[in-house]
Structures are given as structure tokens and as C-alpha cells.
Amino acid sequence: MATLIGLLERSVAQYPGRRALFMRAGVRTIRYSYPELERRAHSFARLEQERGLRPGDRVVIWAANTPDWVAAMFGTFLAGGVLVPLDVRSSRDFVERVVAQTEPVLAFAGHAQAEILRAIGVPAIEFETLRLHENGRVEGPAVNEDTLAEIIYTSGTTGDPKGVMLSHGNIASNVESSLTMIPMNSETRMLSLLPLSHMFEQLGGCFAPLSVGAAIAYPTSRQPASLMRTMQEWKPSVIMGVPQVWSLFMNSIEREAASQGKLGTIERLRKLARRLPVRARRTLFRPVLSRFGGQLDFGVCGGAALDPAIQEKWETMGVALVEGYGTTECSPVVSGNRRDDRVPGSVGYALPGITIRLAGDGEVQVKGPNVFQGYWRNPTATAEAFDDGWYRTGDLGYFADGRLFLKGRKKDLIVLSDGQNVYPEDIERALNQQPGIGEAVVLGLHREGSVQIHAVLLEKEPGAAARAVKAANGLLDDRQRILGYTTWPEEDFPRTHTLKVRRPLVEEYALDATSRHGVTAPAVEDTDPLRRLVAQCARYEGEISEAHELGADLRLDSLGRVELLSAIEEEIGVFVDDAQIGAATTIAELREMVSRGERRPSNHSFPRWPRWRPVRWLRRGLLFTTVFPLVKAGYKIEVKGRANFRGMDEPCIIISNHAMHLDPSILLKVMPSSFRQRVAIAAAASDIFGNRVRGFVSALLGNAFPFAKEGSGVRESLEYVGTMLEDGWHVLIFPEGVLTVMGPTKPFKGGVGLLARETGVPVIPMRIDVLRPGFYEGKWLPHPRARVRVSIGKPLRVASDMRFGEATALLERAVKEA
Asked: Is the pLDDT of residue 288 over 70?
């Protein structure tokens, strides 16, 4: 496996029947088996060749994680291109600098990112509207272990970004050595949380699991409440994350326990669990672990220092956290603990084939096949990065019993809790150009288990610091925003004999000042629910105003804001997408989003018991002995087009007008028996399932489930329809959303068009015409001449590029013309 192309080809040969990638995107689910992933990659490669890509040309990917992100990456390798992945949160200024350096010939991007790329002259193809055609395998150029695979730009710098050149051999060798630390196999179910533009996620969350036949799921949201729903469905066995991800999950657990008055119980269970073996710990915390799918075996943590207190909390629940260390320049893993041999605070042993040494000043230096080729078009920076062939990491460390322990950065680079790098000189430059500022020193302060950007400022005039921080934040990338500041009390910073600022003394003062500030202004708990949640998540003790910004004023970084939105969803019951907010979002703006947000239904559970085998047999008996005889006694049924059910083996959507309460029974009766056994009915959540008896009877006789017609719960209902289809069930829907007794068909709800387009399944149109009313006239005895006609139209599919409004109109016509 000398190349990443070889990695994919070997896995396709060894695991042809296994699922590789999974993602639920609303009502649509993307599933790629290993052969399907390879075919998709060849389709991307063909598209790139058709667009004029030549070997060595650069291709940008700037989008959120999706299965097609992975396919496009492998497609670029197959075509001989060099991948330039960008974090989806990158600023335009940063992207412009990267584009100027790499001169990409093509880009794959999300819609918003594609617009920016086109504006700066890069041809961009949007993933959302991309249509690929499978035309067989492509013949790309010869690729070997020395061929350049990727140019990775570590996020953070806005001055002169450096592109790390990684070859196929660099990355492939690191995959093999990393698997000695991360025990994965073809049964592993990985949940991918970090951006694929981050080398840590690429290696551990993509290449490594794919090399052993594992399956990878991509969630659509990082908010814990949404993630936990994904995990309950996916049931991951391994999760990779930076320290802040594990803190985020733990905070969500503890917040829910506190809201239920059970935080004390959690603490008592932890004390008990410390004396128990792992299996007993997992049993003890089974209700908590079930939120993560119940199958979580262990987690992998890297990218920044892991708080031992967080690690200990997970360990007491029976979930091992395996910590490692690396840098992008090392592809990226250098060392790691092992699943059965780990020490908190240590980053473990050097991986096989990798050698670590300590320089005279304690700097960690690395040599091995994983070490990068150099910085893109920057020979000076490349030369500075090596010491006689050893890569200089810039980290300080020491060995104890053969294990590596880290002490900090040799230089001033700030590594945030989410693993992203921030260069303080970029922020200092933005601050120093502000009026009234003499000089700025930017630090990464450790605050309650996270690293936050803090500025210490020399003011030339009173009040200049606050204005400077706000103005600088307007110029900086989201991850670079200053989350706190302190004014220096003297005329100048302490300096060395060469006039360099003595940063350790400045940091000591800043830590002391922030500590004192934190205890001098205790706040009375806010009665406003939104401000109270903000204060809790930000650990903010002052008074919160509507003008406060989440970043600059409340010090909430990207994952902190995700935690806040999760708390809002859990406690206020409103979903706000994390893509809508940023560091500059004010409380007033957030309040407006909450007021407009989608309110979650109080508790619409989707019953599973109607699909249990014994219940299905009972339903069949009740239909034949009770329901169908009653329908037959009440109506003479004419059927037209029954042959259109013939050959319908795959799951489909059945749509019909809704003329009588007996419509579901009549429609079921005219269906072929084998088809009927796999039908589920979407019933009104408020009308049918709003009454327990009606809901139970509908679920029993019709395999019905609650379906929200509008407002709250619509998205969740649509997603559940997608789940039912994926599980092999046909779904019967009445798109009018209301009962139209004897009247003309009312306009269809738009959701049916969305469902048909996104799922891509066949749609069978049916129409009920009441020729002579029977039971419905209020008579308890059937009318002797009561008659209905059921017309069954030919199955149709909605094109994936059709607007859902047009799709809805198409389906409405199909029912009327059936």
C-alpha cells in the first residue's frame, strides 16, 4: 500500500460487499459500498480530466464533510491531481492567499464557497448540484510513493500561509503505523466529526478505517443533541475528536443530569465505578452510553492537550480515550498511547518506523517516512523546519519510561482546544494598527479546560483597548477572534536585553488578572431563559446584555457556540443551525434566530412495535377477518390499474387523495397481499396520534406512524419517512394533509415533492372516487348501492434536479390523472 490509490483498490478487493460511507442528508441517505466509492471516485477523475486537469495540477475542496468529499479526493488522486483541502470556516482573505500560492485549476465546494472561489477566478463545481455519470474506470498517470498527494494549509495564519506538502508515501506509511495504536477492523463503525481538511481527521477518520474495511458516517450537524440522534441510529464503536469535542459531549451529559436533579447521582456512580472493571462500568452507565448508540468502545483524541479530568470522567463510564500526538507535517501522527496501555498526560510511544529525539533545549524532533516533503514554494521555511534531516516540531517535551510527555510550544503558536493553529503575530498585527494602542501581546490562555485567545494591550488613551479588540475582531478570521483582553498597567511590557517581550511574565499577569476578575463580579442568575443558558455555557459571571457578542464579549469559540445551540434545543425546544451564527453574533440576533427557529415537537415518538413479526401476523389476521369484511359490506369497490403494482419490489411512496376516513383500509384492500405486508401509513400526528386510542388502533391495523402536517416536527417526520423507505417499507401518504369529503382534491403539501426528489424512489399515484356515499353519510348500516372506484396510476420517479415545487405539482397531476 505505497499510495492512497493502492489503499482504496486493496480495500475494494478485500471488502466488496461492505458499506464504506454513510450520511443521512435530511430525507435522503447516501450509502457507498467500497466498489461504489471507487466507481464514484473514477467518475470524479473523469470529470477532472474533461475539465483539463493535468498531472500535478492543484484541485481545491472547500466544503463540509460528505461522502462525495471523499470520492472527490480519491478522484483527484486517480487523475494525478494534487489536493488542496480548505476548512469550510476559512475566511475569504485566507482562501485568496492559498489560491494565489497554489493556482488551482478546479475546485469542488459548497454553494457559498463556490461563489467566493468564482469571484477570485477559480472554476468551482458545487457539490449540491453536481451530476456525475459513471463511464467506467479512468486511466490516470503513474503514481508512486513520492508523488505529491496534498498541500495542507494549517488554519490560522493570515500573513504568509505555509502549505505542507505530503506525498502518497507520507500518508500511506502513517496509516499503517497508526493502526498499531487505533485498533480497527471491518466491524468498526466510525463517526467522523472533524473537518476532512484537518489531517488528523483524514488519517484517523478516513484513510485508516477505509484501509481495514470499516464503515464511516458523516453527521449533518455538530450540535450534541443532533449528534446524539445520529449516534443512536448509527451506533458508532469509535469516535475521533479533539479534546473540546469530548468536553462538549461531557458537558451535555452533565447539563441534562443537572436539569433532572441527577448530577449528584452521576458523581456517586463515578466514585463507585472507579473500583469496578470496564464491563461493569459500562453496565452502570448504560443509560448514559445509550445516548451515544450504546456501542461506543473507545475514543481517539488528538490535535491538542487532553484535560486529564475529562479523560477520567470518560474512563469511569467504561469508554477508553486513546490520546496521541502529531503535526500536519508528520502526516500527522507521531506517537500514541495504545488501547490497553495508556497513561493520562502522556502522548504515548513513537509509532513503528518513526524516530523521536529531543534537542538540547528539549524540542521534539522527528524522522520517518511520514515526514513531509517541505513547504510549497517556500525553500526558506523548509530549510528552517529541519535540523540535519530531523523535523523540528517546535514542541517541548520529555521522556519517562519510554513515553513522550509534552511541556508546551517552543515558539508562540497557539493550539486551540479544537486542534486548530492560530498565529499570534497575525492578531497582534491587527491590534497594533488600531488607534490608541501602543503594542499588543496575544496569548493562548487555558481557561476551564479550553484554550482561548487573550490580548494584553498597552493603551495610549483610556478606552482604546475595548475599541481596538472590537475593530480587530472585525478583520480577523472566526477562529482568530479575541475572546478576552487585559490592559497592561505599566508604560511598557517587560523585555529581554534584545528588547523582546518577556511573554511568560505577561501571561502570568493575564492569568492573575482574569482570575481576579472572575471572582469580583458574581452575578445573580438571570431569569431570562436564553441569557441564562448563554451564561451557563460561557461560564460568564457578569450581566449579559442584548448587545454582547458571543465571541468577543462572552468568549465562546466555535465548539462553545455549538454547545450553546444544543442547550437551546434541549431546554427551549428550538433548533438553530450552527452555520447561522458566528463569533460576532449578538444576543439580540441569537434571540431573533430562536424566535424564527424550528420548534421541536414536545414528544413525537415513532413506534417500532407495529413492525414486530408477531404484530404483523396479528395485523394480517385482523385485516382479513374484520377490517376488509367491514369495508366490503359497506362499499362495492371498482379497481382500475391494479397491474401497475406488478414488479414493484423496491420500496416506494404511495400517494392518494383523502376522501373518507376509510380511505387507508380501502387502499390496503386493493393492494396485492405481498405488497400490502410492507406498507406503513403516515398518519396525522395531531389528529390520529393526538388521541391514544386512535393512535394505537392505527398503528396496529395500518402500521401507522405520526406525521406532522406543518410547523413543528415536519422535518423530523420527513426524515422518518426516509428511514422507513431505507428499511424496505412502502409508505402511504395523503399529500393534501386534510380530509376532503366528496370535494375536489386540495393542493398537495410541498413535502411530498421534496420526499420524492430526495429519496429517488418510485411513486405510485392512486385516486379514490366516491361514486355513491355509504357509511360516511352517518348511517350505521351500509348503503346497498354505496360504491367507490380506486384508480392506480403508473409508477413514476422525480428527477433529482427538479425543483420540489415542480415535483409536487407533477405528483398532484399524476393522482388526478390516475
From this structure: yes
